[in-house]
Design brief:
The protein is an alpha/beta fold. Helices cover 23% and strands 19% of the residues. The chain contains eight helices and 14 strands. The protein has an eight-stranded mixed beta sheet with strand order 6-14-13-8-9-10-11-7. It has a six-stranded mixed beta sheet with strand order 2-1-3-4-5-12, sandwiched between helices. Helix 7 packs parallel to helix 8. The longest helix is centred in the N-terminal third of the chain and has 13 residues. The protein is globular.
Length: 343
């Protein structure tokens, strides 16, 4: 693993937005430089830079993820404060921001894979130089607290990202999780996810088909985003939503706030991932289940909804691109997403 001092950077705004629906329409050509440009797929020898914009982890957990990346022939560089601990943050705001901006602007790295989620990205996201990606497009990889970064990248650059487990490799991840990550970063093949009847949200469904750009992520991070901040354009999009250890009434409250604010107006469809229950949110007869909460809030939006997707914080998750074209088909039980990378 390599460590380097911070680099200077410059960010230029330009180019054209790219985007298309995989398997449904012909893709619009990507700009040669600038907004919407897809990063290249990774090949052995490419560099992955690893900042920690949110919570802390351990050297052992990061080593597990690093070993997986290195087994594919990739090189890994931890940023200066990637293994630090500062309360429930990985490091003070200024240090996390400096590391994140270093990674965003890194001229050699082909991917930015965060250490973990936790909490803290929202504290620094307004000063994150995401537009530096337009000079040096690279995959941004993460989920959970990293939803704030996904939103900022989608809103400000439209460069695709990956909703994925992170370098601090969790015990929830499996060999299939690792295989889905490798395919998502090292091939330009579409990602096809199929509803798993064993997933708790498998019963969440509003029949139909939809196509549009896949955007979204963790519900609580979406709900925490200020209404005039980094909300990407969701008009005609398929929304991805997942959550972990939130009480049912809080899920209701967060969805209600977002819907009242109008952010879900114009959605084409909704893909529901894993909703891990809060251990203290004990169900009592007569109350709504989590699925009933989701159907109550999402079922009235007039769009197809497909649950049971292995995306999120529960066991055996899968990797999925964000910011590329997707097709949702509830009859087939599939979500097909265009790759985040190009050959």
């Amino acid at each position: 693993m390599e460590r380097r001092p911070s680099l200077s950077r410059r960010a230029l705004i330009g180019g054209l937005a790219a985007g298309a629906v995989a398997a449904a329409a012909t893709a619009a050509p990507a700009a040669a430089k600038g907004r919407g440009r897809k990063p290249k797929k990774l090949v052995p020898g490419d560099l992955v830079v690893v900042p920690a914009p949110g919570g802390p982890s351990t050297a052992a957990a990061v080593a597990r993820g690093t070993a997986i990346l290195e087994s594919w022939g990739l090189r890994v560089e931890l940023t200066e404060h990637a293994l630090d601990t500062f309360g429930y943050l990985s490091a003070p705001d200024a240090d996390r921001l400096a590391d994140l901006n270093y990674a965003l602007a890194h001229p050699e790295a082909k991917a930015l894979m965060t250490v973990r989620g936790g909490y803290g990205t929202t504290r620094i996201i307004d000063d994150a130089d995401v537009e530096a990606l337009e000079d040096h497009p690279k995959l941004v990889i993460g989920y959970s607290d990293i939803t704030a970064l996904h939103f900022a990248v989608a809103d400000q650059t439209r460069i695709p990202t990956l909703h994925s487990p992170m370098t601090a490799w969790s015990s929830n991840n499996t060999d299939a999780t690792a295989a889905s990550l490798k395919a998502a970063i090292m091939t330009a093949d579409p990602v096809v996810l199929t509803r798993d009847p064993a997933e708790s949200t498998a019963g969440v469904e509003v029949p139909g088909t939809a196509s549009g750009k896949l955007l979204g992520g963790n519900l609580s991070l979406m709900a925490a985003e200020p209404d005039r901040s980094n909300w990407p354009d969701l008009d005609g999009a398929i929304l991805l939503v997942e959550e972990v250890e939130e009480a049912r009434y809080r899920v209701d409250n967060m969805l209600t706030r977002i819907i009242r604010a109008g952010h879900f107006d114009g959605l084409a469809g909704i893909a529901v991932g894993q909703f891990v229950p809060h251990p203290l949110d004990e169900y009592k007869p007569g109350e709504w289940t989590m699925n009933e909460v989701l159907l109550d809030k999402l079922g009235d939006l007039g769009v197809p909804v497909l649950g049971g997707l292995k995306i999120g914080h529960d066991l055996d998750p899968r990797v999925v691109p964000l910011g590329t074209g997707a097709v949702l088909d509830t009859a087939a039980g599939t979500l097909t997403v265009e790759a985040a990378v190009r050959d």
